[in-house]
């Protein structure tokens, strides 16, 4: 897919199809890097035999134009001490050395991220685990990403098999991060727990991109869910199920938290529908919409209802934010709830017919989710115990 504004995309023919022996059961996700005028794309080739036994190969394809790729085949295969669950290569360059981080599973069936290095992008040397510490975070770590900022780095990954802990980790799989330092081919984390990158229902396996103007952009998959929920999605009748999030600008604040803001290019497509100052607002709207609410003083209570069964609420008493929706399979209400790092100051929401992305406190906390109530107008009700400035825009995209 090609974009010139990070909002509109032209979809092309598949770049890679699983046609070779080392990828016959799937060309799995990876990443790319530009070097000496060529695009080097690394991905995982998935292979299964008749009994379902897996083999995985880290493969290379090279392109002169970004559209046509010449497959070079596997550059990494079996790795001692690890199962065949090794995938999702992320490539970056540090000084004169290329590095690859890979999601992996140890032979004791615990998750890990491993590091390789290369001088030429063809021959790779195994370095070892990216982290010296061993964590009890599930049985497999997918889509690892090492994002380097000016003073620190963030290690983002998606562990599978993390147990629910109260209101935390309620999704089938998680995505989160540590901050710290990448030095001497090791990532040393800061002393904080694993932090979820997105607190909502559906967000998984994100990829970061170094954009041409210096921004770090992040794109996530709004789709990971139980099989029965996936199979009952209303869009299955239209031959599609999931989609990606909007692009998010990624940064690190002074407290060491990752900040995610909607990509600024979306602002160019705003068409103002209403501006309101007060405590209670109600009207009906068509999607797609952008809703922004700001508070001069943190409200004791804030509530936003959209459609019949989608509710956002904030309670200052315990500084908690909750998102409640109707489960489209069971028709019962379900929720995700989290205690915020700071009291609520602003809310920014993007709605697009069957998805909602919620950014709180200028992107310090994010909730993403899917929902289905059909097409047509939906009623919007916003209430706050303190005066709010509310901006509602249509998005002509």
Explain how this protein is built.
With 397 residues, this protein is mainly β. It contains one helix and 28 strands. The strands form five sheets. Strands 19, 20, 21, 22, 23, 24, 25, 26, 27 and 28 form a ten-stranded antiparallel sheet that branches. β5 and β6 form a beta hairpin. The protein starts with 26 loop residues before the first strand and ends with a strand. The mean pLDDT is 96.
Brief overview:
The chain has one helix and 28 strands. By secondary structure, the chain is mainly β. The protein is globular, with a radius of gyration of 22 Å.
Write a concise keyword list for the protein shown above.
397 residues, 28 strands, mainly beta, 5-stranded antiparallel β-sheet, 10-stranded antiparallel β-sheet
Task: Write the SSE topology.
Layout: E1 27-35, E2 38-48, E3 54-63, E4 70-76, E5 82-94, E6 97-106, E7 111-118, E8 125-129, E9 140-148, E10 153-160, E11 176-183, E12 186-189, E13 195-196, E14 204-210, E15 216-222, H1 227-231, E16 243-244, E17 248-252, E18 258-262, E19 270-285, E20 289-295, E21 301-306, E22 310-315, E23 320-326, E24 333-339, E25 346-351, E26 355-360, E27 365-370, E28 378-395
Antiparallel strand pairs: 1-2, 2-3, 3-4, 5-6, 6-7, 7-8, 9-10, 10-11, 11-12, 11-13, 14-15, 15-16, 15-17, 17-18, 19-28, 20-25, 20-28, 21-22, 21-28, 22-23, 23-24, 25-26, 26-27
